[in-house]
Amino acid sequence: MKTATSNFKRFGSVAAIAIAGTMLFSACASNEGTTPSDSESESTLSGTLDGSGASSQSAASDAWIAAFQTANPDVTINYSPDGSGAGREAFIAGGVAYAGSDSSLSDDEIAGGFAACVPDTGYIEVPAYISPIAVIFNVEGVDELNVDAATLAHIFRGEITTWDDAALVALNPDVTLPSAPITAVHRSDDSGTTKNFTDYLGKVAPDVWVDPAADPFPAAYGGEAAAKTAGVVDAVTNGSNTIGYADASAAGDLGVAKLKVGDEFVSYSPEAAAAVVDGSPLVEGREATDLAIKLDRNTEDPSQYPLVLVSYLIACQEYEDAEQAALVHGYLSYVTSEEGQAEAASAAGAAPLSAELSAEVATALESIKL
Q1: 321 or 30: whose pLDDT is higher?
Q2: Segment Disordered: which positions (predicted)?
């Protein structure tokens, strides 16, 4: 079975993680354009490129923006962080030239075609950003919290409603949990982060979380809804006795729960997130230019953190406008290059693509007709 490639670079500490809340791509690129390290050649790129999608990558994208727009001063890339579902919808409808998404394209979306692309030509879907999802909390008097998938599932289903519930007490014998109601905060918009979170719950606690993984959070379970990564973080921060989920970079000073993996409780880290991706297969039956990964959530190896997201960039193999093709090719090539991944790791604590996976991505991007 073909797997996502290995040898992710080790770097940083947990304290280095600071990735997204809202996402703004504003970068510059092209096959003929310059990269930030290419100081001797002069960029020949110009024009505007519009994208939309996941709100999970803002710290990384800020670094990409600063470096790439400096290198290519006549290019502007506008990225609207409307959420993964909205980004895919905009790309499918032809409203933007590329999309960012924390969940890969569905078979139905692929079968429906893409108005952004030349008719009867292919598409590209490549991983660009790997990050843990943090379970964030704000509970008076509580600095540390252990959870397992089943308990999380019961909380977000509205079935565990107080912090001193017996299940939470059993997982946290050394913590005094208050007799206070739990406010569980979820995304109100269609979110790839939600799909990854519910995929984790469904894979690891299938007897409790019986709903299929999906971008929208199940409305029947109640709780507090907030838009985008920043909205969830704000609701958890400004609420009382709250819990939520968000890209780890956005956790800030909030409490972050440890997840039970095997017999241990594990903190998130880029290395632990990368290890899960490393051992996961690609989705079967896709085109060679579609590098969607089927994440293995059921690890019992405490060196791995199974609540992880892979954020993709989705684009066309052929555009009507040659300028758009050059911009898409150059920008996506930079983001997924060793240099672009190093920027994301430094600025956002993201786990870089391995050398092997980066090479596969580069091959997919070379299929863009320039």
Answers
A1: 321
A2: 30-54
Distance from chain centroid for Cα 142: 28
Place of tokens 């060196």: 303
Q: Which residues pair with 313 in a beta bridge?
A: 100, 126
Q: How far is CA 236 from CA 73, 74, 193, 254, in A?
A: 39, 40, 16, 8
Structural tokens at position 74: 């006549």
Separation CA 80–CA 97 (nearest Å): 12
CA 132/CA 236 separation, integer angstroms: 18
Return the SS3 of 261. Answer: strand
295 touches 103 (CB < 8 A):
no
| Domains with residue ranges and CATH for the chain | 14-130+282-292+309-365 (3.40.190.10), 133-271 (3.40.190.10)
Choose among 253, 252, 254: nearest CA to 243. 254
pLDDT tier at 205, thresholds 50, 70, 90: very high
CA dihedral sign of residues 334, 340, 344, 350: positive
**φ, ψ of residue 312 in degrees (nearest 5):** -105, 155
Q: What six digits make up the tokens of 284?
A: 């079967």
With tokens 């506008």, the residue in question is: 78
Q: What is the pLDDT of residue 208?
A: 98
The residue type found at 201 is: L
Q: Chain-centre distance of CA 78, in angstroms?
A: 19
Dihedral angle sign, alpha carbons of residues 86, 88, 92, 94: positive
How far is it, in rounded angstroms, from Cα 113 to Cα 219?
Answer: 29
Q: Is 15 left (phi over 0), alpha (psi -120 to 50) or beta?
A: alpha
